[in-house]
Every structure is written in C-alpha cells, then in structure tokens.
Design brief:
mainly alpha, 2 domains, 2 strands, single chain, elongated
Length: about 325
Amino acid sequence: MGMKFFAAILLSLLLSACATKPNVPAAPPAAQAGSVDAGTALVAQAAVFLNTKKPAQALPLADQAIAYYESTYRKSGVLVFSARSLPESMLYALEGAEAKMSAQVYGVEWGLAYFAKGFALVDLHRIPEAKVAYDAAIKLSPRNSKYLSERAQIDIVERNWQKALEAFQKALDAADLSPPQLKTAETTRALRGMAFAQVELGNLAAAKALHERVLQLDPKNEMSLNELRYIQNQKKAAGEEEAMTVFTRANYFRVVVKQRRCDAMDGPLVAAANARFEAARKAIAARYGETYFPENQATRITISDAPCDQRALDLYQQGVQSMESLLARQK
C-alpha cells in the first residue's frame, strides 16, 4: 500500500470517529471527563511520518499510542474492540454477548495504532514483528477489511498463496462493514489480492473473474486492467505451449505412419487421419502462428524398417484427437 493511500485512509478514519468515544455501551473515563485523547495525536503524527517515508520515526509514536490505549482501556475479563462504524460496533458488542463476556467497544484509534506500527515495520523489512502488530490490530478489529488485507499481503510476500487467498476472502467478507467512503477501495483491494493468489496457484480463469468484479465496481482500475492483460498473455503462452506439445506428438506419429507406409495397410484410415490432422493444424496455426505449426513439418525420425502395425495407426489417431480436443477446450 502506498504511503499517501495510508495517510488518506487514516485521515478519513480519524475524521469519522471520535477519539476514545466508544460506540457501545458507554463512554470511557476520558470521554466522560471531556479530556483530549492522548493516543489520537500520536497516531496522527505517525501517519505523517509514514506519508513522508519515515517509518523509523513513525514506529515509536505508534508504540506510545499503543501503550496509552493498553494501559488506559485494557481490563481483565473484558473483551475490548476498536471499531470505525456503528454497525461494526454493534457486531462486536454482539460477539461479547455470545461469548457471555462483558464487551467494550472503543473508537478506531486503538486499532489504528497497531496498524500504523505494522505498516512501519513492513517498510523497515521487519516482517515477523509486522505480523504480530497486524494480528493485534485484527484482534481489536476482526471485521476491518483494511487490516485483513494488509495482513494477507504478508502471506503474498511469503508466497503462502492458499493462505493469502483465504485471508483476502475474509477481507472481502468484512468489506460489507466498510464505511461508505472506503467500501469500494477495500472491496476491490480484497478482490485484487484474491486474484493475485489465484494466478500464483495457476487458476487463471478464477483470477480473471475476480478482476472483472473489480472493474464492475471501479471501471478505470488500472491495476486490474493491467492484470487482465497479463492474465491474457499468460493464457496465450500456456495455450501455445500445450498446442506445441500435442502438435509435436501428433506430427511425430504422422511421420512414423508415412515412413512405414501405413497407407498400404489401411489407406482410407490414413487418409482420414491426415485430413483431420491438417484441419487441426490449420486451426492451431491460425491461432498461434504458422511459424511454429507449419504445413508438412519435416521431422527426422530414426526408426527401424519394421512394417506398419495397428499400434502406429492407433497412436497417430490419438495424437490427432489430442489436437482436436485442445481446440475444443480453447474456444
């Protein structure tokens, strides 16, 4: 995630929530007294440093904010949450009720302090510590799509493709609760993360469908437009490689059948197989180019002077069938 994007999100969240004012069920001591939340200023200043690419300066500020919130609001036997909207707050309060525990839901800043720390640690290439910070933010805000996506991005960095796919799916599900001004950005971020993982898992069709969902929400999304072009090129390359494989095999047995004069054994069958081979070859060449799939490709095969047999005919027909099947699949 870019620094400016982080700062924009942070500013939006800070403007949309009061400092320590909880959404459910009652105001904490600081809010009741009308005092200024010491953590908010620290988180905001950390964001400024992150925006100017100074993660080393941002990190101690995030740590100070975390220490403030932990010492002020963490209580034994009470589930604590950090929410950025009323629906999110109500959901967390419900989770406390289901767990038969007292739950206190605070404003967005506590979770943001951990998020800022994780972001700074990623920029400092301290990935194991960043994971701990992001996990702490997610524990406070388990339905925050942004936090979930950034944590999933670490799985991408570590090449844990299946784990990343599952994590981005959680981020996508959580985007239902994203604030209106962030909903599109967070939904498309999760979709793009899932698509990236699907590409690495070899599921190009699934990745394509995910990027198409992104463009339905954000038609000018350059990242998805570029990725769709990449996927198309990958599909073409994979299709060309498969075509080369099946063509080479079929052509090999075409030459075997010709050199062994199998037409003397079964002329109509060989003629039919040759006609099917040429039709399939032309279709493949039209798709991928005549250069790699030329007519009557010369192939030197050292074979014995053994006469034609049924096995040679069968293998040739199977090779032709493979070419035809490939064309049917790639339509």
